[in-house]
Amino acid sequence: MDLLNTLVEKGLRRELPTRDEALAVLATSDDDLLDVVAAAGKVRRQWFGRRVKLNYLVNLKSGLCPEDCSYCSQRLGSKAEILKYTWLKPEEASEAAAAGVAGGAKRVCLVASGRGPTDRDVDRVSKTIEAIKEQNEGVEVCACLGLLSDGQAERLRDAGADAYNHNLNTSEGTYGDITTTHTYADRVDTVTKAHAAGLSACSGLIAGMGESDEDLVDVVFALRELDPDSVPVNFLIPFEGTPLAKEWHLTPQRCLRILAMTRFVCPDVEVRLAGGREVHLRSMQPLALHLANSIFLGDYLTSEGQAGKADLEMIADAGFEVEGSDTTTLPEHRATGGGCGSVCGDGGGGCSDGATAEQAEPAAEVPAARTDLVAVRRRGAGTDIAPNA
Ligand code: SF4
Q1: Atom of ligand 1 nearest to the CA of 75
Q2: What amino acid positions are annotated as catalytic residues?
Q3: Which of 182, 189, 260, 303 is deepest in the core (most CB within 10 A)?
Q4: Fold of 2-324
Q5: Whose CA is nearest to atom 5 of ligand 1?
Q6: Residue range 187-224, pLDDT digits in tens
Q7: Per residue in 301-347, pLDDT tens?
């Protein structure tokens, strides 16, 4: 398939595909799916070998958010029966983080619901970061606290944070349909602030919210332009009690195409298989490891993932290995600050070699609502029950 040969060549050179090529990946048929996975897998192996980085989520503050992100079970007016609690104490968060690290996680992601942190919240999270770093040598800490005000990224960095996550989630064109209490530009601004403060930027998307292929390509190209080090790809968990509860659009095959397209557009970036993998990829999860080089271990913020032990078994069975803390995740040119943008950062197809995309008939996809696979988190942070790690 000329399209796939072209995309592999470009991925190995860290060259940006054209929008048409990215769209063509999303339009491939089920007959071509394994070829697509194999092609994107070559690019993944070039930059990350067969390593899988494990990340562990700690929800520092759950629910009761004043923002109205439609996909979120913690949003204003959410009827989802999630755990609701205010800030964990540093020692509680550190204990939860330690469970993830003991399970093999290399990075701990500290997340708090809300529009963004106050300066007092930043103090609180700084103490938590210090406690985690003291008790877990070599662990990476990423903070995800919402929109940042001036100076807050620098304070988090000074407290020892390695990274900051803030997802773009969807395309600029559809952002206003998903959230009205803040803008796409607000989100871009926070990612830019994190980057400028010297934090490793983590920013990704949520697929399955009713967006078009063009929207998916738009958001992934926008991410490439922002040049984060890691790109989490979430698949919408349509929580009962949220406005998107009926949005069951994803099939395992669609999820694999989205991951492959992300890998081709962001070849040397940590592509992280994030929320919703168990619900939407189901028994096809191991194939996704050929595309993503990073996953979350155990549970998510408000929903339960598969057992941490099952994650580890899946990685071993699929022929991959958990990345150790002595290995640098990113390829050398990125780890030393070169970034992807230094090679090809125009974000608009400027490095195209003019290859023609082969358009296939879109596969007929009739997804079933798998509400039986959505389990609200009832263990770990904010409970007395042992975490899943
Ligand atoms: S995504 Fe964050 S800001 Fe939006 S509703 Fe959920 S917790 Fe609040």
Answers
A1: 5
A2: 65, 69, 72, 109, 142, 202, 272
A3: 260
A4: TIM Barrel (3.20.20)
A5: 75
A6: 999 999 999 999 999 999 999 999 999 999 999 999 99
A7: 898 899 999 999 999 999 999 999 888 999 989 887 545 443 433 33
Both tokens of residue 35?
A: 């070829």
Mutate to test the pocket of ligand 1, among 59, 70, 72, 164 (most ligand atoms within 8 A of CB): 72
Tens-digit pLDDT profile for residues 242-279: 999 999 999 999 999 999 999 999 999 999 999 999 99
Expressed in angstroms and rounded, the spacing between residue 70 Cα and the centre of ligand 1 is 9
Beta bridge partners of 207: 235
Residues with CB under 6 A from ligand 1: 65, 67, 69, 72, 74-75, 113, 115, 146
Length of the chain measured in residues: 389
DSSP letters, 340-382, are THHHHTTSSSTT---PPPPP-PPPP--PPP-GGG--B--SSTT
CA distance 221 to 208: 17
Closest protein CA for atom 2 of ligand 1 = 113
Which tokens hold the place of 299?
A: 């549970």
pLDDT by residue (tens digit) across 154-182?
A: 999 999 999 999 999 999 999 999 999 99
The pTM score is 0.90
Distance 237 CA to ligand 1 centre (A): 14
At which residue do the structure tokens 């999630």 appear? Answer: 82
Domain locations in the chain as residue ranges: 2-324
CA distance 297 to 388: 8
CA–CA dist 207, 199 (Å, integer): 26
